[in-house]
Structures are given as C-alpha cells and as structure tokens.
C-alpha cells in the first residue's frame, strides 16, 4: 500500500486512545466481581450512543454512560447505589494517560504537527480529563461531539473539525484505538490511524476501510509520521 501523504493536523480520540480506560476496572470488579465487565458496559455505551445518533436523538455521553451502567447492572441482577454512579463519573474524569502518549506527543509537537482532540464526551466544569492527565498542553484545540449533538462516527462530527481547522479532509488524520472511529474518519475523506490497544482489533471484512496506519503504540505512530 502506498504511504499516505503527511497530514497537516493530527486529531486524537481521547477515551481509551490517550487515557487509560482500565482505570475504571476496580469499580466493575467491586460491582460485578469481574473487572472485564468494563468491556460489556463500554460496548453498550458505544452501541446506544450510535443508536441515538442514527435515530436523530441526543443525550450527553456521560448521562448515557450512567444509564448504560444501570442497564448492565439490571441485566446481571446487581443493585446500584448513587455512590456507584458517582464513582463512575469520578473515575471517567480522572483516567491517567497511557505511558506511551506524552513522549510521543512531545516528539510530534517538536516535529511541527498541529494536534487537536475530538471526543464523544461533553465539556464539563473544572479541570478537563486531559488537564488532569497532564496532556492538555499538547493540543491546539479540543472538539466535542456535543457541538453538533451527534456521536462519532457521524460525518458531522468530523466535518466540524475540518471546518474549524480550515484544513482539507485529506490533510487530517484521525488517531484512535476504535476501528469504528477510523472508519468514520476515512469515510469523511480523512486519513485514519488505528492504535491497537488491548480489546481492539481490525475487522477483516469486504468494504471495511483499512487504516492508513496501524500500530500498537503511539510512539511507533510518531516514528512513521515523522519519517513520512
């Protein structure tokens, strides 16, 4: 496959791509006796966020996350208390950065790349998760789907970034650990870079866009982008 043209703007997904979702595992271990239940909850959250968008509806991601936890608990016969929902919100808001992220971002910044984020999460009061994780300084802007009231991978979520950054779609690269996100970006004319975090993989099926880059950590992506 021919190497893609070097992008002008790198657009990073936040949850799980930059910030470590396993920070939530102790909550699921306490509630369900199995930290891997985090993955069932997260799959429900993504399924219903996309279902809302396809139905022309919108509820902020954090509220859907709490609802998905209630749903998962009901399915498994677990009783939730308000403090459980509070802990979910606290843990989501304080996820640490993956160890490969800051060094790679620093190298990309030194190499002259413009960098922004695009997240399903709505903005909130107080320090942002990126600020708490020590990553906010690397990004020129932070975009949220809350601005268009549609969740990724809806085309409008990517279009708002291209318009705001005044950059042709082909010069933007979406970096995410979720293939559904890179699929949406590539369908919008962007480049796509898949970071193969645990519990994420390619989907080998006809018609599914293959990411322009596929790596198992962001440092390796930096190597390829800087060398391109």
Description of the structure:
The protein is α/β, with parallel strands linked by helices. The protein has two domains: 9-20 and 96-227, Rossmann fold (3-Layer(aba) Sandwich), CATH 3.40.50.1000; 21-92, Putative phosphatase, domain 2 (DNA polymerase, domain 1, Orthogonal Bundle). The protein is built from nine helices and six strands; from the N terminus they run E-H-H-H-H-H-E-H-E-H-E-H-E-E-H. It has helices at 25-32, 37-54, 61-75, 82-92, 101-110, 129-132, 155-165, 179-187, 218-227; strands at 9-12, 114-119, 141-144, 172-176, 191-195, 213-215. A six-stranded parallel sheet has the order 3-2-1-4-5-6, sandwiched between helices. Helix 8 links the parallel strand 4 (172-176) and strand 5. Helix 2 (37-54) packs across helix 3 (61-75) and helix 5 packs parallel to helix 9. The longest helix has 18 residues, at 37-54. The two termini are 14 Å apart. The relative contact order is 0.17. The model has no long low-confidence stretch (mean pLDDT 96). It is an enzyme of class 3 (hydrolase). It comes from Halomonas litopenaei.
């Amino acid at each position: 496959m021919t190497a893609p043209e070097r992008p002008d703007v790198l657009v990073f997904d936040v949850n799980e791509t930059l910030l470590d979702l396993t920070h939530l595992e102790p909550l699921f271990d306490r509630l369900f006796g199995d930290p891997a239940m985090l993955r069932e909850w997260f799959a429900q959250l993504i399924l219903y966020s996309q279902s809302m968008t396809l139905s022309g509806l919108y509820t902020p991601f954090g509220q859907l996350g709490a609802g998905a936890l209630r749903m998962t608990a009901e399915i498994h016969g677990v009783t939730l208390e308000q403090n459980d929902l509070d802990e979910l919100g606290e843990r989501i808001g304080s996820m640490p950065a993956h160890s490969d992220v800051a060094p790679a971002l620093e190298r990309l910044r030194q190499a002259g790349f413009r960098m922004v984020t695009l997240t399903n999460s709505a903005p909130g009061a107080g320090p942002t998760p990126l600020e708490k994780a020590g990553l906010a300084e690397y990004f020129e802007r932070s975009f949220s789907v809350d601005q268009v009231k549609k969740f990724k991978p809806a085309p409008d979520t990517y279009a708002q970034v291209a318009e705001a950054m005044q950059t042709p779609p082909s010069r933007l690269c979406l970096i995410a650990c979720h293939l559904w996100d890179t699929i949406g970006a590539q369908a919008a004319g962007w480049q796509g870079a898949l970071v193969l975090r645990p519990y994420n993989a390619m989907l080998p099926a006809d018609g599914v866009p293959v990411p322009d880059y596929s790596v198992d950590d962001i440092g390796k992506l930096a190597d390829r982008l800087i060398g391109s």
